[in-house]
Each structure stands twice: as C-alpha cells, then as structure tokens.
Amino acid sequence: MIMRIFQVTVRPGKEAEFSEFFHETAIPLMKNTEGIVEVLPGAPRSETPREFSFVMVWRSLDALKAFVGEDYNSPHIDPAEAELVESRTIKHYDLVE
C-alpha cells in the first residue's frame, strides 16, 4: 500500500474560504475515491493557521495512478482551489503494516 501525504499552505486571508472547500468538497471526494483505503484529513492548528493536509492510504500505486495519472509525484489540485493555495507538497511512502 502507498501512503500519500498532501500538504497545502493557503494564501493569507483565504483560510475560511479554503476551509469550506476542504470540508465540503475535498474530504467527501477523497473518502469516496476508488482505491483509497483510508483518508486522514488534517485541519490547521494555531501554530500553523494556513496549513491543511491529507494522509491517504492507497491500495496500490496503480490505484493512485488511476486517480491522478502517471505523474503522481505532482501535487494535483482542483481548479476551484487553485486561487486559494499559496503552495503545496506531496510525498509518498510504502505503508508499514
């Protein structure tokens, strides 16, 4: 299984707007995506008020590629969130069970 960690830093002043997108669109989308075993969404804390994250466990690399394409190392974002996001990172790991 593949663990995918996706982190987003939101543009200053866009926290509430991104939070709405995160809770109402992104979390339900990821939880209902074929090939995902588990989704752990992370909301900002006081020391990191503009950072959101997802830890996703994918059944396989093929399942991940079926969702994001061959370029799975690029942090893909929904066009609706593009103007809200300052930066994003993506990392992958083999899940240790």
From TrEMBL:
Residues 1-71 form the ABM domain. SUPFAM superfamilies: Dimeric alpha+beta barrel. Pfam families: ABM. It comes from the Bacteria. This is ABM domain-containing protein. It comes from Ruegeria profundi. The lineage of its organism: Bacteria, Pseudomonadati, Pseudomonadota, Alphaproteobacteria, Rhodobacterales.
